[in-house]
UniProtKB/TrEMBL annotation:
GO terms for molecular function: metal ion binding; protein-glutamine gamma-glutamyltransferase activity. Belongs to the transglutaminase superfamily. Transglutaminase family. This is Coagulation factor XIII A chain. Its main location: cytoplasm. Ca(2+) binds at N443, D445, E492, E497. The active site is at C321, H380, D403. GO terms for biological process: blood coagulation, fibrin clot formation. It comes from Calcarius ornatus. The gene is F13a1. Keywords: Acetylation, Acyltransferase, Blood coagulation, Calcium, Cytoplasm, Hemostasis, Metal-binding, Secreted, Transferase, Zymogen.
Length: 735
């Protein structure tokens, strides 16, 4: 007797006074499902073989078969059935004898997790009826032949997404007979942007192809005057990536019952993409040293990062904003949520959402680096995900900002969003989540403030146009840039813009009015600053231009400061100081050149080859100060990629990657990466060194399996030179 009691104890749930069952947030765990569930005492002579019995279940799960074709899931490298919710799919059941509807009764059961419950959407019994209702669970027989029936099954348009286990249950007088656990019939159910009843429904086919089905994208970087682009492989269809994405939701401890809601999924994912809380996917590093990890610039896509995390369960080192955004985009597209990667140029990292970035000047008008704590990022990448927002008033659905880069905490965790782009544009920052933070990223003003000896602050200059002056994403169906600034803000200086700002202030965004400070700018002189397009390792010149619009002669004492910066605008070192006196004749323009030599910057240059120039000029006659700042990014040489031989699916082809070292020094610890989504998994090769002016050549042979237009992406990384990329579109022919 004692033995049986002990096993009963083991099968009981752990006792917990607060909830009847433990939290259910693992898609992987399973419960035991009995093959025979008896109604009472089973009489002698009962033989389950006398009743209707399932011999086989056929799932039509091959890429070329009806289910994956109709559900746009044929690209997933996954042998199991993958369907989208709210849309019918087919299966075939073979019984041991013909099915007789009058006397036989069977139903399907979809289960998820360890503690399936019908009211939580984790246990779904489906009986066979005569008609399917749109967007609701149901099944009907569409074909009967011999011992087989073919079913059309409709899933709910709001059901939870993830991997379900399928059982077929048959009713007998003495109990329920079920099929055995068979992982071959596991069914993944994803979001469905093609279904009007789904919260992520997108009505434009071209947009669905781009934002759900495209597995390669473009990251725009550089700065607003010099936009640069590179490819990124999302790889949402690659082997094991879907399982890795489902694991992220387990890791974030999102209850299974909440996984039908794209708002919840985005919110928890924005926290789990970074490692700042609970050991998420990517560890960020902005300090230019990447020991025991991969430099952020070396990654060519998301797949390596997600698969490494899925197997090691430890944060992958290292990422910066575009890496967090690239992996987040893969996660969203993989689950079926339309998503795109956004770049905001001159992005304000504002610590207290007060719409004000302070740059402090000393007595002479030079920038005081000791007091200045705010930084303007050359660019910052985040994501937009498409969904309805039933939790907000009508009109705030559509694109939502989500950001996985750890910047500020939100409700105690490093996460950001989803915040409605429409709400940000109109200043309705009261609507969750984190809208004031995003509003400040695109709308802050730069204040140049001079500290008097007695501690009072004098505002010398205000720049209202620099922050968020260009917001872009990849165009639909091409590699070009689409300007979406107008989706985030009204035209600078328009009435609508002023109204949106007043609304944001009313809802708690802090904005100091100009009236609070003494501010009388010099309005009759303009100062501008241009930099020559410059290649890494070369000298270049910058030009400062004054335009005197008055009838007075002025002299301007001008200070020029060149800083080597991280792309986040944080300075590493001032490498160039220059001051001069400029004579400004009435009603005329005058220009002054400053030459920047490569010997001045090469030693300390950081990986994105970014400079930040400050120019301040004091008009001696009036004591007023003009100020301008500019980011300059040098051109970094690219990798050359070419193919050799025939490009035919199933035939070996070869790719050659070449690079010539342009620097006046030897490159040490060189690593090359090459990846072709849907064609070639990432391969790495290490080269010791490349002497100056030498060319490195690397040939890779592989066999592409599928025909179609594909992209090869390569990156080079070394101690002295990073952010070196190359790409090539290749058309693989059918054999």
């Amino acid at each position: 007797m004692s033995e049986t009691t002990s096993t009963n104890e083991e099968n009981k749930l752990p006792l917990n006074g607060r909830r009847a069952i433990p939290p259910n947030y693992s898609n992987d765990e399973e419960n035991e499902v009995p093959e025979m569930e008896a109604f009472g005492v089973i009489p002698r002579g009962f033989n389950p073989r006398d009743y209707l019995r399932v011999v086989d279940i056929y799932m039509f799960k091959e890429p070329q078969e009806i289910n994956k074709q109709e559900h746009h899931t044929d690209k997933y490298y996954n042998p199991k059935l993958i369907v989208r919710r709210g849309q019918a799919f087919q299966i075939q059941i073979d019984f041991n004898r013909p099915y007789q509807p009058q006397s036989d009764q069977f139903w399907l059961e979809f289960l998820m997790g360890r503690y399936p419950q019908q009211n939580k959407g984790t246990y779904i019994p489906i009986s066979v009826g005569s008609a399917l209702k749109p967007g609701q669970w149901g099944a009907k027989i569409i074909h009967r032949e011999n011992n087989s029936i073919r079913l059309s099954i409709m899933s709910s348009a709001t059901c939870i997404i993830g991997k379900f286990r399928l059982y077929v249950a048959v009713l007998t007088p003495y109990g329920i007979l079920r099929t055995r656990r068979n992982s071959a019939t596991d069914t993944y159910i994803l979001f469905n942007p093609w279904c009007q009843l789904d919260a992520v429904y997108l009505d434009d086919e071209k947009e669905r192809e781009e934002y759900v089905l495209n597995d390669v994208g473009i990251v725009f970087h550089g700065n607003v005057e010099d936009v640069k682009s590179r490819s990124w492989s999302y790889g949402q269809f690659e082997e094991n990536v879907l399982d890795a994405c489902l694991f992220l939701m387990d890791k974030a401890e999102l209850e299974l019952s909440g996984r039908g809601n794209p708002i919840k999924i985005c919110r928890v994912a924005s926290a789990v993409i970074n490692s700042r809380d609970e050991d998420g996917v990517i560890a960020g590093s902005w300090n230019n040293s990447y020991d025991y990890g991969v430099a952020p610039s070396a990654w060519t896509g998301s797949v390596d990062i997600l698969l490494e995390y899925y197997s090691s369960k430890q944060p992958v080192r290292y990422g910066q904003c575009w890496v967090f955004a690239g992996v987040f985009n893969t996660f969203l597209r993989c689950l079926g949520i339309p998503a795109r990667l956004i770049t905001n140029y001159s992005s304000a990292h504002d610590n207290n959402a007060n719409l004000r970035m302070d740059f402090f000047l000393d007595d002479e008008g030079k920038v005081d680096t000791r007091l200045t704590k705010d930084s303007v990022w050359n660019y910052h990448c985040w994501n937009e995900a498409w969904m309805t927002r039933p939790d907000l008033p009508v009109g705030f659905g559509g694109w939502q900002v989500v950001d996985g880069t750890p910047q500020e905490t939100s409700d105690g965790m490093y996460r950001c969003g989803p915040a409605s782009v429409q709400a940000i544009k109109h200043g309705h920052v009261c609507f969750q989540f984190d809208a004031p933070f995003v509003y400040a990223e695109v709308n802050s003003d730069i204040f140049y403030t001079r500290m008097e000896k007695n501690g009072t602050q004098v505002v010398e200059n205000i720049d209202t146009t620099r922050i968020g002056q260009l917001i872009v994403t990849k165009e639909i169906g091409g590699d070009g840039m689409m300007d979406i600034t107008e989706e985030y803000k009204f035209r600078e200086g328009s009435d609508e813009e002023r109204l949106a700002l007043e609304t944001a202030v009313m809802y708690g965004v802090k904005k100091q009015s100009i009236q609070d400070t003494t501010y009388q700018p010099q309005t009759d002189v303009d100062m501008d600053f241009q930099a020559q397009k410059a290649v890494l390792g070369n000298d270049f010149k910058v030009t400062i231009t004054f335009r005197n619009k008055s009838r007075n002669s002025y002299t301007a004492t001008t200070y020029f400061s060149g800083n080597i910066v991280f792309y986040t605008g944080v300075p590493k070192r001032e490498f160039k100081k220059h001051s001069f006196s400029a004579k400004l004749e009435p009603s005329s323009s005058s220009s002054f050149d400053v030459v920047i030599k490569s010997s001045e910057y090469m030693r300390d240059l950081l990986e994105q080859a970014s400079f930040h120039f400050f120019v301040t000029a004091r008009i001696n006659e009036t004591g007023k100060i003009l100020a301008v700042q500019k980011a300059v990014t040098l051109d970094i040489p690219t990798l050359r990629i070419k193919t050799k031989g025939e490009l035919v699916a199933g035939k070996e082809m070869s790719v050659v990657v070449e690079f010539t070292n342009p620097l006046k020094q030897t490159l040490e610890n060189v690593t090359l990466r090459l990846e072709g989504p849907g064609m070639l998994r990432t391969i790495k090769k290490q080269f010791g060194r490349i002497p100056m002016n030498s060319t490195l050549t690397w040939e890779v042979k592989f066999t592409p399996m599928r025909a179609g237009l594909r992209k090869l992406i390569a990156s080079l990384n070394s101690d002295a030179l990073r952010h070196v990329y190359g790409e090539l579109n290749v058309q693989i022919q059918k054999p």
